[in-house]
TrEMBL record:
Protein name in UniProt: DNA 3'-5' helicase
InterPro entries (UniProt xref): ATP-dep_DNA_Helicase, ERCC3_RAD25_C, Helicase/UvrB_N, Helicase_ATP-bd, Helicase_C-like, P-loop_NTPase, XPB_DRD
Chain ranges of the Helicase C-terminal domain: 374-507
EC number(s) recorded for this UniProt protein: 5.6.2.4
GO MF, one annotated term: 3'-5' DNA helicase activity
Length: 507
């Protein structure tokens, strides 16, 4: 194996005592100098996952930064502590961290399962590493069950500089508030700057690196190789995002031995969850919403309503579906995976028939998702639950705006500015608004005020999307009432087939 460094990269020569093995962080890798060839062979034979490669430019070796914890443990077993000069991490010491949250039993169980994955539990915890434990794994907990609280407890427990990575600006701001309240200067403990920790932020127009920092995935992707030695723990919120081709490099370039992934729905339809497990750690704890409903989450009922297309809608739907399916038959595309869809999109750039088929598919789906009968069904649901706080979910902006105009309720889409979004949610929280509509943007992670009724007018076959929408109404109700989720599906369309496929995939 040969490790090739990018052209123009400056290679530094670490100084170390003779007969020692020096570990240093460099540009997303762990540079290893001083290894004897017999040790190299033994390491590679014992664990191919170390990805220990020759570096002809330095005469030493390298491993990807995310293999640091495994590499260190393997070296300690092979040669002992006296010959290792570990300078991989550059971690400032933190004051004692103390979260004000008290964990519920199921949260403590999840945290314990993660801590048990410590890859340095056999004693490989020399002070020079900068961190005493190296747990790594993923927790799958329902939306509304307090994943953030578990993560705060993990940060408290390890007590080392931590990077929290999140997918959206809303979550960035939400996490920043939580971290500031729990661990920041003048936060919940109110002890002043001398005892608090500075909270950094990467994203949303700010680039401020501190011992505890929250970052968007986009910002972390741009900076991971330059900050990869600054944190002992990395928390990936909504960790399923890490499976993307670009984002997975974040995890590979960081040396942080402590790794925690959080999600409500871990498995990805493209199979990339296997990649995430290699980078972050295995799925170590899973709790289904049904296990918590009634005690820690609100008990809930699910109602599925089927509506039918009008004669005109049916005619237009079938005409567009026929255009789409005829092209698939002629071009031998089977649409059994995401790659098949990407192939159709690729062809549409040069093949007019492919473009026509793609547009016909889109039009057919719009007809099914926004049928007149769905709007009528929504009217009946809203009338039935006049006093209930209700969220209406749609798959696209156009339908969200149609619902907003028809029923005079505020809507939140990707076009809604941050200030307006906060205002709408705050008024929903305080009861000024009893109903809001949204197109996907409230599906994931955002701290949405308590609601007891959700209406899914349109969506996808994704179990993740459905679980996240269910989680919007599952926070415990003070009066003990049951939450209610309506799923409105247009019969005899691709939407009905998608809903059935999702239910058949449900655990």
């Amino acid at each position: 194996m040969i490790f090739e460094r990018p052209v123009g990269t400056v290679t530094r020569s670490p100084s170390f005592e003779p007969n020692t093995i020096a570990l240093r962080y460099e540009d997303g890798t762990v540079r290893v100098d001083g290894l004897e060839e017999t040790t190299v062979r033994r390491l590679r034979k014992s664990d191919a996952r170390l990805e220990l490669a020759d570096d002809p430019r330095t005469g030493g070796h390298r491993s990807p930064a995310f293999r640091y914890a495994r590499l260190r443990a393997a070296l300690l077993e092979a040669v002992g502590t006296s010959t290792i000069d570990d300078g991989v991490l550059s971690l400032p010491s933190l004051p004692p961290l103390e979260s004000t949250y008290e964990l519920r039993a199921y949260q403590q169980e999840a945290l314990s399962s993660w801590l048990e994955t410590d890859r340095w539990a056999d004693g490989a915890t020399e002070p020079e590493a900068g961190i005493g434990t190296a747990p790594a794994g993923i927790l799958e907990l329902p939306t509304g069950s307090g994943k953030t609280v578990v993560a705060l407890a993990a940060i408290e427990r390890l007590g080392v500089p931590t990077l929290v990575v999140v997918p959206t600006i809303d979550l960035l701001e939400q996490w920043e508030r939580e971290l500031e309240a729990e661990f920041g200067a003048g936060g919940a403990r109110g002890v002043g700057s001398a005892d608090g920790v500075s909270i950094g932020r990467l994203g949303g127009g700010e680039q401020r690196l501190e011992p505890i920092t929250v970052s968007t995935y986009d910002s972390a992707y741009l900076k991971a190789d330059s900050i990869g030695d600054r944190f002992g723990l990395v928390v990936f919120d909504e960790v399923h995002h890490l499976g993307g081709e670009g984002y997975r490099e974040i995890g590979r370039l960081l040396a942080a031995p402590g790794r925690l992934g959080l999600t409500a729905t871990f498995e990805r339809p493209d199979g990339a969850h296997d990649v995430i497990e290699r980078i972050v750690g295995p799925l170590v704890h899973r709790i289904d919403a049904d296990e918590l409903a009634g005690e820690h989450l609100a008990p809930y009922d699910l109602k599925r309503l089927e509506v039918t297309l009008t004669a005109d809608e049916r005619e237009e739907y079938e005409r567009n579906q026929e255009t789409f399916t005829d092209y698939l038959a002629q071009s031998n595309i089977r649409m059994q995976s995401g790659s098949d869809y990407q192939e159709l999109v690729k062809r549409s750039g040069s093949d007019p028939a492919a473009r026509e088929a793609l547009l016909a598919r889109q039009r057919a789906r719009e007809i099914a998702r926004g049928s007149e009968a769905k709007i009528d069904a929504l009217e009946s649901i809203l009338d039935r639950h006049r006093e209930a706080r209700t969220i209406v979910f749609t798959a696209h902006n156009d339908l969200a705006y149609e619902v907003s105009e028809r029923f005079l309720i505020p809507t939140i889409t990707h076009r809604t500015g941050a200030a307006e979004r906060r205002e709408v949610l705050e008024r929903f929280r305080e009861g000024t608004y009893s109903r809001i509509a949204t197109s996907n943007v409230l599906d994931e992670g955002v701290d949405v005020p308590d609601a007891s009724v959700a209406v899914v007018l349109s969506g996808s076959a994704s179990e993740r999307e459905f679980t996240q929408r269910l989680g919007r109404i599952l926070r415990p109700k003070e009066d003990g009432r049951r939450a209610l989720l309506y799923e409105v599906v247009t019969a005899d369309t691709s939407e009905e087939r998608a809903a059935k496929r999702r239910r058949s995939d449900s655990p």
